[in-house]
């Protein structure tokens, strides 16, 4: 659980830097690589329209803020 919180904290900080129009697939790959490097497993990342993340944690924004990348456990 501690690893997850650290990883999500880092991703939250990083997401602001990537919000300036980065392609979603590229950002999703970078986030996945960071999670994998931290040893996080059993998760999924999904690209959704902004505001559509009902039961997931937003870990990044892309395409100029029009889309969000959400993290789900399991």
Automatic annotation (TrEMBL):
This one is known as DUF1161 domain-containing protein
Pfam families, per database record: DUF1161
Which species is the source of this protein?
Pseudomonas marvdashtae
Please tell me whether the keyword Signal is annotated for this protein: yes
User: InterPro entries from the entry?
Assistant: DUF1161
Which positions carry the signal peptide feature in this UniProt record?
1-19
* UniProt KW keywords: Signal
């Amino acid at each position: 659980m501690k690893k997850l919180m650290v990883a999500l904290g880092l991703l939250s900080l990083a997401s602001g830097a990537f919000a300036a129009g980065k392609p979603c697939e590229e950002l999703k790959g970078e986030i996945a690589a960071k999670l994998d490097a931290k040893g996080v497993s059993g998760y999924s990342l999904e690209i959704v329209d902004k505001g559509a993340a009902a039961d997931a944690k937003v870990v990044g924004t892309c395409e100029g803020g029009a889309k969000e990348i959400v993290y789900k456990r399991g």
